[in-house]
């Protein structure tokens, strides 16, 4: 999930002041983590805590319904528990209301918040079916609109495929066939592309940034260069790039320096968790 966190931090200062070029200082004093990082950590925590309580099936190629029911409950628990520690992280109005509700219910959102937090599901999944089921269980607690579910699932699938030896051409074919058309080039949309918080208006662009880029860092720079909801687009693209390229140690070390102790600890726990699943 560090790919998403790095994209969030690098893109944070450009969300309301877009920079339509790949030429910029990657990290500086204006950068910070936002709600994208907070909720990504919460999803990771939910997955880890669920697996402590429900025994996964052999090989982790799918779980019982009990697992997915509990994962949904854990997602609500940790998004609220962790999210409430960061009330000014940049949550949208409807999510903010959900975050502090005593009876949180899905609110039919089709926003890109479903995709920016989902990377732990793509990294933990061991099959395409499992990726889809994990994405749904995590996403539907808030974003139960079909477009919100679709954006999260497309992102999860791209991350899963990127981490399991699929080529960029294969990833493009899968996403284009089952989720979003990707028959455009970022150079052709960059000038007119504007802020759009919907899944369909930002997830395809983030995936395309990964497909067009040549490295992990280039993916983040490419995502930011198109403008729009820069931190979220870079978080989504960065999550896919992490699965495909890995995260350079220097960027990992610098990004962790922007986090507080609580978020750094979740990152450490997640690395340990993934190591156990290999």
SSE sequence, one letter per element:
HHHHHHHHHHHHHHH
Count of alpha/pi helices: 15
Percent of residues in β-strands: under 5%
**CATH fold-level assignment:** ADP-ribosylglycohydrolase fold
Mean pLDDT: 95
Give a structural overview.
With 278 residues, this protein is an all-alpha fold. It has one domain: ADP-ribosylglycohydrolase fold (Orthogonal Bundle). It is built from 15 helices and no strands. It has helices spanning 2-11, 35-53, 65-83, 93-99, 113-116, 119-124, 128-139, 146-162, 168-178, 186-189, 203-212, 216-225, 230-245, 249-256, 261-277. Helix 1 runs antiparallel to helix 13, helix 2 (35-53) packs across helix 15 and helix 8 (146-162) runs parallel beside helix 13. The chain is globular. The model has no long low-confidence stretch (mean pLDDT 95).
SSE blueprint:
Layout: H1 2-11, H2 35-53, H3 65-83, H4 93-99, H5 113-116, H6 119-124, H7 128-139, H8 146-162, H9 168-178, H10 186-189, H11 203-212, H12 216-225, H13 230-245, H14 249-256, H15 261-277
Helix pairs in contact: 1-13, 2-3, 2-15, 3-7, 7-8, 8-9, 8-13, 11-12, 11-13, 12-13
Note the main attributes of this structure.
globular, ADP-ribosylglycohydrolase fold, 15 helices, mainly alpha, 278 residues
Q: How do you describe this structure in short?
A:
The protein has 278 residues and is mainly alpha-helical. It has 15 helices and no strands. The chain starts with a helix and ends with a helix.
């Amino acid at each position: 999930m560090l790919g998403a966190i790095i994209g969030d931090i690098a893109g944070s200062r450009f969300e309301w002041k877009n920079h339509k070029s790949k030429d910029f200082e990657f990290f500086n004093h204006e950068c910070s983590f936002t709600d994208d990082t907070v909720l990504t950590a919460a999803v990771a925590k939910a997955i880890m805590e669920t697996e402590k309580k429900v025994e996964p099936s052999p090989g982790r190629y799918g779980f019982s319904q009990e697992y997915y029911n509990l994962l949904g409950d854990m997602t609500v628990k940790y998004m609220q528990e962790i999210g409430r520690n960061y009330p000014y992280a940049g949550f949208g109005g409807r999510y903010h209301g959900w975050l502090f509700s005593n009876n949180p219910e899905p609110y039919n959102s089709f926003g890109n918040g479903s995709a920016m937090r989902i990377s732990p599901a793509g990294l933990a999944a061991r099959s395409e079916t499992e990726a889809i089921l994990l994405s749904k269980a995590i996403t539907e607690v808030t974003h139960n609109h079909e477009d919100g579910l679709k954006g999260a699932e497309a992102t999860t699938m791209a991350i899963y495929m990127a981490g399991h030896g699929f080529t960029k051409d294969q990833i493009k074919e899968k996403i284009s066939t089952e989720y979003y058309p990707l028959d455009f080039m970022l150079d052709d949309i960059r000038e007119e592309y504007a802020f759009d918080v919907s899944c369909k208006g930002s997830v395809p662009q983030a995936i395309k940034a990964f497909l067009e880029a040549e490295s992990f860092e280039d993916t983040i720079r490419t995502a930011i260069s198109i403008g729009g909801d820069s931190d979220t687009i870079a978080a989504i693209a960065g999550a896919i790039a992490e699965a495909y390229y890995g995260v350079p140690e220097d960027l990992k070390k610098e990004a962790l320096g922007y986090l507080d102790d609580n978020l750094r600890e979740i990152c450490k726990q997640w690395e340990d968790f993934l190591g156990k699943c290999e």
